Amino acid sequence: MTAPWTRLFDSELPVIGAPMAGGGSTPALVSAVADAGGFAFLAAGYKTPAAVATELATLHRAGTPFGVNVFVPDPGGISEPEFRRYARELAPEGEPYGLDLANTPLVEDDDHWRDKLDLLLATPVPVVSFTFGLPDPGTVTALRRVGTRVLATVTTVAEALAARDLGVDGIVAQSTEAGGHSGTHDPARPMPPTTVERLVRECAAATGLPVVGAGGIDGAGRVRRLVAEGAAGVLVGTLLLRTDECGTSQPHKDSLADPARTETVLTRVFTGRPARGLRNGFIDRHDASAPLGYPAIHHLTRELRAAAVRANEPDLMHLWAGTGYRQARTGPAADVVSGLVATL
Predict the structure, then answer these.
(1) What would the pLDDT profile of 80-105 be if each residue is shown by its tens digit?
(2) Is this prediction's pTM over 0.90?
(3) 234/143 Cα distance (integer angstroms)
(4) How far is residue 118's CA from residue 136's CA, in Å, rounded to a whole number?
(5) Is residue 307 within a helix (H) or strand (E), and if so which, with residue range?
(6) pLDDT band for position 343 (cuts 50, 70, 90)
(7) How far from 143 is each of 56, 146, 170, CA to CA, in Å?
(8) How far apart are CA 301 and CA 19, in angstroms?
(9) Which pLDDT band holds residue 344 (cuts at 50, 70, 90)?
(10) Cis peptide before 295 (omega within 30 of 0)
(11) What GO molecular functions are on record for this protein (predicted)?
């Protein structure tokens, strides 16, 4: 019988490298996962269209099959008074680095949405996935017309049904165990804990579409269970964060192995959108008062987070990590891929 992951990825193995925006998903990481028999996504988020175009060209020249993940613009926003309140609260955090956070401008943008779509239509890739919401029907049609399979990230069965009705080729079912940003279509919605196995099972039954499992992948046992559930792939992010080819900052890599970092939490303190990361001092100080407001809050804290990386101060960084972070190891990404399929 044909392996279910070949329907979406044409890969030998069910291991799918997750898109990790902010520098994690380098072309080298994408190639390493593909060379090991898996498939991987390049993250278009936070990059200029020119930067994305350069990375696309690098991978196309190498003949690497890969996907691209794109942020769907958030239709919400944040009021100026609420933004200014949080900026004033954070101001003391920035003072040691010469940052005037209290007077940071409120910036809302769409992450170059249209330009990135135009680029992906002009230089097609095998798979494009969307997160933070659903694209319009015309975008799905246009991508499929150029030979691209389209995936939508969902966090509930209701979101999966909306994606099915849009006409996507498959679904990425992301549980609350996942590291980094939640792909929820409604950031204000309460997020009760859910396992990836349950979400894959429910989304597959409700939609009849191929479903990729994402969140909390901590080893071969979990991959085996998801494959047994009929998953059309298993998205792996946190376990790749410490590998040689990943672009994660050194303080982030070190924090994943720090025994003093004892838990991950969902928080919106850094970007105004729910995301899971290692608990640290910044989260402890501001989690109770942090507002929703992506991408304005992301822009507010961006320079502070960059300064913290330069100063090797992880207590001020967004240390994105899923619940399986203790199993993240150093070394080649190929070793992670082979380890995850050892018991299939």
Answers:
(1) 999 999 999 999 999 999 999 999 99
(2) yes
(3) 23
(4) 14
(5) helix 296-310
(6) confident
(7) 16, 5, 14
(8) 22
(9) confident
(10) yes
(11) monooxygenase activity
User: How far from 220 is each of 177, 239, 334, CA to CA, in Å?
Assistant: 16, 11, 14
Residue 264's nearest CA partner among 204, 198, 324, 182 is 324
* CA–CA dist 220, 11 (Å, integer): 18
C-alpha angle with apex 181: 287 to 324, nearest 5 degrees? 90
Could you tell me if 179 and 130 are in contact, meaning their C-beta atoms sit under 8 angstroms apart? no
Phi–psi pair at 134, nearest 5 degrees: -115, 140
pLDDT of 164-198, one tens digit each? 999 999 999 999 999 999 999 999 999 999 999 99
Read off φ and ψ for residue 88, nearest 5 degrees. -65, -40
Q: If you write DSSP's letter for every residue of 67-120 in order, what string do you get?
A: EEEEEPPPS----HHHHHHHHHHHHHHHGGGT--GGGPPP----TTHHHHHHHH
The length of the chain, given as a count of residues: 344
**What b/e readout covers 82-113, taking b as 16+ CB neighbours within 10 angstroms?**
bbeebbebbeebbeebebebeebebeeeebbb
Tens digits of per-residue pLDDT, 253-309?
999 999 999 999 999 999 999 999 999 999 999 999 999 999 999 999 999 999 999
Output the six-digit token pair for 263: 């838990």
Query: How far is CA 182 from its chain centroid?
Result: 8
